[in-house]
Amino acid sequence: MLVYNQEELARFVEEAKQYARYGKVADYIPALGKADPNELSIAIYTPDGRVVDAGDVTVKVTLQSISKIIALALVLIDRGEDEVFHKVGMEPTDYPFHSIAKLEEKPAKPLNPMINAGALVVTSMIQGGSVSERLERLLAFVRRLAGNERISYSDEVARSEFETAFLNRSLCYFLKQHGMIDEDVEELMDLYTKQCAIEMTCIDLARIGLVLALDGRDPCSGEPLMPLDVARICKTFMVTCGMYNSSGEFAIKVGIPAKSGVSGGILAAVPGRCGIGIFGPALDDKGNSLTGVKLLERLSKTHSLSIF
Ligand code: GLN
């Protein structure tokens, strides 16, 4: 089994940090604008239960778009592939994650569940009687995947996004007009912004990555936390759409199923080998962690982690 070396990891983190000056912290969600662009941390979780980390891994990161992969897994378990893919497609896009453009073409079905339009449809399919019940179901699932009962969401970040999410509201109204969502838009925005504000450390992120890397099995007990097919679909979307409209370049340079969020988080799953969690809030122009991608590129090349 591959054993990652702490000193090497710390060195890679310092090297990747040099790129922070070329990135920019997301500030369209005001609360995210407070992050320090020079922050960079990583945790690698291996199937033997070992964690190797570097940087300050006690810092919590909100999931943002990383939550899209977890919500998708839950909804696939709840409703099955046919119902989910009736409302959201499977194709990557070279439009930005918040684009409305493609919805103008008929049918107004979002291209995939990793862009905001698709994620809003997926979140609207989370089952439960009320927003709080649906959020609790999602949180319970996240806690099981991370093996951490204390995970919750940041009220400050959720509120900050809720108050400023005019673009996402527009997507919702567009989707509602075309019958892709039924529910009240403010309720959906309430649930979606809380989903995006679920926060955890890089170690938690890495643990979730490891569950996906192990085809949905709990790394300690071996118990299935999601069906094999659901884990497979999630990892496939992570490869084709996980890094927004630079997923192709990422596949060539890094080659690891991964999902990023505008908080600067990345969740990566190296099949059979490890889960990786990263927090580096300096973003590139597509909204991916610039330092995080540099770090993953270095790791992947050094340890031949590409799946291709
Ligand atoms: N909450 C963010 C949004 O909807 C998530 C986007 C992202 O991380 N790319 O804008």
TrEMBL record:
Lineage, top ranks: Bacteria, Bacillati, Bacillota, Bacilli, Bacillales
Biological source species: Geobacillus jurassicus
Enzyme Commission identifier(s): 3.5.1.2
Entry annotated with the keyword Hydrolase: yes
Encoding gene, per UniProt annotation: glsA
Name of the protein in its database record: Glutaminase
Keyword list, A-Z: Acetylation, Hydrolase
MF GO annotations: glutaminase activity
Family, similarity comment: Belongs to the glutaminase family.
NCBIfam families, per the entry: Gln_ase (TIGR03814)
Keyword Hydrolase: yes
Catalytic activity: L-glutamine + H2O = L-glutamate + NH4(+)
InterPro entries, A to Z: Beta-lactam/transpept-like, Glutaminase
Residues involved in substrate binding: S65, N116, E161, N168, Y192, Y244, V262
